[in-house]
Design brief:
The protein has 818 residues and is of the alpha+beta class. The protein is built from 33 helices and 25 strands.
Length: 818
C-alpha cells in the first residue's frame, strides 16, 4: 500500500495508509462510518464535509487546535519549519515568549500534528503539509468570522480589487520602487512586511501614536473603523499599507505585518502542555472514604424517602411535561433540602428507572415496580445502582429553573433536560480526580482550566452554540453532585468510586459495605412523645415507625414524633391499639412512656366512632350527641351536612374531602365500605406499569467495536479496489470509467465460468433486490443453476449472486486483489 510519489489529494493520502491507520481514523471520527463508505474516495469526501470537520475540530485539545489554526494562516502547502515558526516565533524576545515554552512546543508539535493526520484534518509529507479545505475555511479570517489567531487576511487578499494607482501610492510612501504590474506590487509589499530588517526601519520612522494603533490591532481583532478624514497616525499607516481598506469605513492590519509585530507567532500564548491540577487540600484517604460512605447512605435514604412520599400516587404531570414548580417546592420541603437539590434527587430516581409516568389519562408520576426490587437490595448495592445511573445519564438537573432557546422555563423531569455531553464530562472530571493521589482534592478552577484545554473555547464558526460554556457548568455541577451522591468525600475521590470507574460494581459495593452502619432493630422512646433512632433502622421497623410517627429531624440520629394524626395513620393502615403497644414494647430499649400509651389508647377509642361512606357521602354514628355537636359547629358549614336519621348525616362532597374536613375539626372518623366495614388504607399501593430507565441521548455516533472497524476497513479497501481496478475491455459494450460494466448474458456467463475454472478474480456490476447498484471484485468458485458462488473481496466473505442481476463483467488487467 506504500506510495513512491507524494499524495496529490486527501484520497491518495488515505489510500496510502495501512489498515491500522484507517481503523484509527474511523475510531477517532465514528461519524464517517454511517453508512460505511463504499471506497476511499467516498471516505475522503465525507471526511471533508463541514459537519464532520466541525465535529472533529471540537474534539481536539488546545494545542492540536492551535496547530490547525496556525496551518490555516500559513501558506498552502506549508513546510514543517514554517508551521513550527508560527508556533514558536522567529526568535525575537518581546517579553512574553520564553525559551522553555519554545522547547515544549518543539517537543509537542509532532504529537499534535500526528493527531491532525490521524483524523484526516492534515495530509501530506512534512515538506508539504496541507490542512483540509473545509478546516481552512472554518479557521481562516474574514470580517464576519475573525480567525481564532486574531490575524487578518494577507496582503494579496486585502488588496484584491485595489486599483493599480492606489498600489503605486502605497509603494512610493513605503519607499519601494514603483511598478505597473499589480502582482509585482503586491509581492514587493509582502516582501517588505516579511523582511525583518526593512520592516524594522520602516517602523522606526512611524509616529508614536501610529505604533499605539498597531498595538491595539496586533493580537486581534485586526479590523478597525476609520472616519472619512482619519487622524495623522492612521493616515500614515494607511498610506504605507500597514492598514489596508476593507470598505469605506473599515481597515485591516495585513497578516504579514501583524506576524512581524508578533515576532512571527500565530498565537499570543501557545499552550503545548495541559495545565496542571492545583491541590486544594490533602486529606486522610480513610477519612475521605468514611465521609463519602456517610453521604452515600444518605443518598440512598433520600431517594427512598422521596419515592415513599409518592407511594400513594405522585404529582401530576404538566401538559408540556415535567414537574410543576409547586410540586418541586413540595418535594424540597419533604426532603428538607433546597429546590435545586430536590431536582437532582428526582432526576436521579428517574434516570435509575425507579420513577416514571403511570400512563393514565390523569397522568402522574409514581414509583415503578423496579423500585420495590431496588428496596430489597443492600444499601451498598442500591448506591452502586444510583451512581451507575448518574454516570451514564444525559439528564442534567442543573438546568432546572433556567430557560430553553425559546425562553420557556425548564422543569424537573421535563423533556428538554438531556445534554449529550454530560456523561463524557462527568467521566472526564472523575478521571482527573482519579489521577490524583488518594485523598487529594483539586482546586475547582484548575480543574475547569484543564477541561477547557482538552476541549477549548473556539470561534463562532466552529463551536456549536454554548457547548463549551455548558461543559464548564456541567463540570461544576459534577463536583457538587459527586459530594451529594457520595462519589467524593470532602472533595477527594473515594476508593469505592475508583473501583466503580474501573468497571467493578461488585468491588465497589464490597469496599462500601464495611463503611455503612449496620441497621438497628431498636429505638429509644422518650417521655416527650418522641423516639430516637441512633442509626439506620431495619426495613420492617422503619416502615412501621414511619406510619406511626412523623420524622422531626434527621442526621446521625433520626427523631420521630408521635402525634394524634400519626397514630390515626397507623390505625387507618389496619393496626389495632394492642398491635401498637406490642410493637413499641418489642422495639424500644427504654420503657414505653405513659403519655405515649395514653395517646394510643385515646386515639384508638375515638377511631372509627364516626363512619363515612358514599351517598355522595354520609356520616353515621351511634352517638346522637356527637352528630348534634358536628351540626352545631360553624366549621361544618362548608361540608354541607344534613341529618338523614338520628344516627346518620348526608353530605354533598366526596368521602375523601369529608374525611379531611372532619379531621381538621378534631374528630377521628374512619371510612367504610359499601358493606359497612371499615376501610383499611395502606401505603405503597400505587405503581406504574413496568418501565425501563430512560435511554441516554448519545453525543454523535457510538464508538465502533473492533469487529465493526475491521469489517468496515475491509469493505472500504475492497470497494476501492473495485472502483479503481484496471480491467480488460471485453468488447464494444464494455463499461466506461466509473460506470457499471455492461456485457450480454452470454458474455457474462462465459467470463464467469472461465474465471471459476482458472481461479482468477473478475470485476462485476451488480444490482440487488432493492435496485441499489454497486461494483464488486469477486473470485468465482462455482457456477450452476443460474447462480454464481464466489469470494467477494468487497465484503470479505463467500456470497452467492443471481446471474441475472449481474449487469456485466470485466477481467482484471492483472492481479489487484492482493
Amino acid at each position: 500500500m506504500g506510495m513512491t510519489t507524494p499524495p496529490r489529494t486527501l484520497a491518495e493520502a488515505l489510500r496510502a495508509r495501512d489498515d491500522e491507520s484507517l481503523a484509527g481514523l474511523l475510531r477517532a471520527r465514528p461519524d464517517l462510518l454511517t453508512p460505511v463508505p463504499g471506497d476511499i474516495t467516498q471516505l475522503a469526501t465525507r471526511a471533508g464535509t463541514r459537519a464532520s470537520v466541525v465535529r472533529a475540530l471540537e474534539h481536539l485539545d488546545r494545542f492540536a487546535l492551535q496547530t490547525a489554526e496556525a496551518l490555516a494562516v500559513a501558506p498552502d502547502p506549508a513546510p514543517y519549519d514554517i508551521l513550527l515558526g508560527l508556533l514558536t516565533g522567529d526568535g525575537r524576545d518581546d517579553g512574553e515568549h520564553r525559551d522553555d515554552a519554545g522547547a515544549a512546543i518543539v517537543a509537542a508539535l509532532p504529537g499534535a500534528l500526528g493527531t491532525l493526520r490521524e483524523q484526516a484534518l492534515v495530509w501530506g509529507e512534512n515538506d508539504r503539509l496541507r490542512l483540509v479545505r473545509t478546516a481552512r475555511e472554518l479557521l481562516s479570517p474574514s470580517p464576519q468570522h475573525p480567525s481564532p489567531t486574531g490575524l487578518g487576511p494577507t496582503v494579496a487578499e486585502a488588496t484584491a480589487g485595489m486599483s493599480p494607482g492606489r498600489l503605486q501610492e502605497i509603494l512610493t510612501a513605503a519607499g519601494l520602487p514603483a511598478t505597473h504590474d499589480p502582482v509585482s506590487a503586491v509581492g514587493a509589499l509582502s516582501a517588505l512586511f516579511t523582511d525583518r530588517t526593512r520592516m524594522g526601519e520602516l517602523l522606526d520612522t512611524a509616529p508614536v501614536e501610529a505604533l499605539s494603533v498597531l498595538d491595539r490591532l496586533v493580537w486581534g481583532p485586526p479590523y478597525g473603523e476609520v472616519t472619512p478624514n482619519p487622524t495623522p497616525p492612521v493616515k500614515w499607516l494607511r498610506d504605507r499599507g500597514l492598514l489596508l481598506p476593507v470598505s469605506t469605513r473599515t481597515v485591516v492590519l495585513p497578516r504579514e505585518a501583524a506576524l512581524h509585530l508578533r515576532a512571527g507567532r500565530a498565537h499570543r500564548v501557545p499552550e503545548p502542555q495541559p495545565p496542571t491540577l492545583a491541590t486544594a487540600a490533602e486529606r486522610d484517604p480513610q477519612a475521605v472514604d468514611s465521609a463519602a460512605a456517610g453521604q452515600a447512605f444518605l443518598a440512598v435514604s433520600t431517594v427512598e424517602e422521596l419515592l415513599k412520599s409518592w407511594n400513594g400516587g405522585g404529582p401530576a404531570i404538566l401538559r408540556a411535561g415535567g414537574l410543576s414548580v409547586r410540586e418541586l417546592k413540595k418535594a424540597a420541603a419533604t426532603l428538607d433540602v433546597s429546590e435545586p437539590v430536590a431536582a437532582f434527587w428526582i432526576e436521579l430516581a428517574y434516570a435509575a428507572g425507579l420513577l416514571a409516568s403511570d400512563g393514565e389519562a390523569d397522568e402522574r408520576y409514581a414509583p415503578t415496580p423496579a423500585y420495590d426490587e431496588w428496596t430489597e437490595l443492600s444499601a451498598q448495592d442500591r448506591w452502586v445502582d444510583l451512581a451507575s445511573a448518574w454516570l451514564a445519564a444525559t439528564r442534567t438537573s442543573g438546568l432546572v429553573g433556567g430557560q430553553d432557546a425559546k425562553g420557556r422555563a425548564l422543569s424537573a423531569l421535563g423533556p428538554e433536560l438531556d445534554r449529550s455531553a454530560a456523561p463524557e464530562v462527568r467521566h472526564r472530571v472523575l478521571a482527573l480526580l482519579a489521577a490524583l493521589p488518594p485523598g487529594t482534592a483539586p482546586e475547582p478552577e484548575s480543574l475547569l482550566a484543564r477541561l477547557r484545554w482538552e476541549r477549548p473555547l473556539r470561534g463562532a464558526s466552529v463551536s456549536a452554540g454554548d457547548t463549551t460554556d455548558l461543559r464548564s457548568r456541567i463540570a461544576l455541577w459534577t463536583l457538587n453532585e459527586s459530594e451529594l451522591l457520595g462519589i467524593t468525600g470532602r472533595g477527594a475521590l473515594a476508593s469505592q468510586t475508583r473501583a466503580l470507574l474501573s468497571g467493578g460494581r461488585a468491588e465497589a459495593a464490597a469496599r462500601l459495605a464495611p463503611l455503612i452502619p449496620e441497621p438497628l432493630d431498636h429505638v429509644l422512646l422518650q417521655a416527650d412523645l418522641t423516639a430516637v433512632a441512633p442509626g439506620p433502622l431495619e426495613r420492617p421497623l422503619a416502615d412501621m415507625l414511619s406510619a406511626l410517627a412523623d420524622i422531626e429531624s434527621k442526621g446521625g440520629a433520626t427523631v420521630y414524633r408521635f402525634t394524634p394524626g400519626s397514630v390515626r395513620r397507623a390505625l387507618d393502615a389496619g393496626q389495632s391499639a394492642a398491635d401498637l403497644h406490642a410493637f413499641l414494647a418489642a422495639h424500644s430499649r427504654t420503657p414505653v412512656p405513659q403519655p405515649l400509651s395514653y395517646l394510643i389508647d385515646d386515639v384508638s377509642r375515638r377511631h372509627g366512632h364516626l363512619r363515612i361512606g358514599a351517598a355522595s357521602s354520609y356520616v353515621r354514628c351511634d352517638d346522637e350527641a356527637v352528630l348534634n355537636e358536628i351540626l352545631a359547629d360553624k366549621r361544618s358549614a362548608t361540608l354541607r351536612l344534613r341529618r338523614l336519621a338520628p344516627t346518620a348525616l348526608a353530605a354533598q362532597i366526596d368521602p375523601a374531602s369529608l374525611l379531611d374536613g372532619l379531621r381538621e375539626m378534631g374528630y377521628a372518623p374512619a371510612a367504610e365500605s359499601a358493606e359497612g366495614d371499615v376501610l383499611i388504607t395502606r401505603a405503597g399501593a400505587v405503581r406504574t406499569p413496568p418501565r425501563t430507565a430512560p435511554v441516554p441521548v448519545p453525543e454523535g455516533p457510538p464508538l465502533p467495536d473492533p469487529t465493526l472497524l475491521g469489517a468496515a476497513v475491509r469493505a472500504i479497501r475492497a470497494g476501492d479496489t473495485a472502483a479503481t481496478v484496471v480491467h480488460k475491455e471485453t468488447g464494444p459494450s464494455a463499461s466506461a470509467a466509473g460506470a457499471l460494466p455492461r456485457t450480454t448474458s452470454a458474455e457474462t456467463l462465459v467470463t464467469v465460468q472461465a474465471a471459476a475454472m482458472t481461479g482468477s478474480a473478475i470485476w462485476i456490476g451488480y444490482v440487488n433486490a432493492e435496485g441499489a447498484a454497486s461494483q464488486r471484485v469477486i473470485a468465482p468458485v462455482r457456477v450452476e443453476g443460474g447462480y454464481v458462488t464466489a469470494y467477494d473481496h468487497t465484503a470479505d466473505e463467500v456470497r452467492t449472486y443471481p446471474l441475472h442481476r449481474i449487469t456485466g463483467v470485466a477481467e482484471l488487467a492483472d492481479d489487484q486483489t492482493a
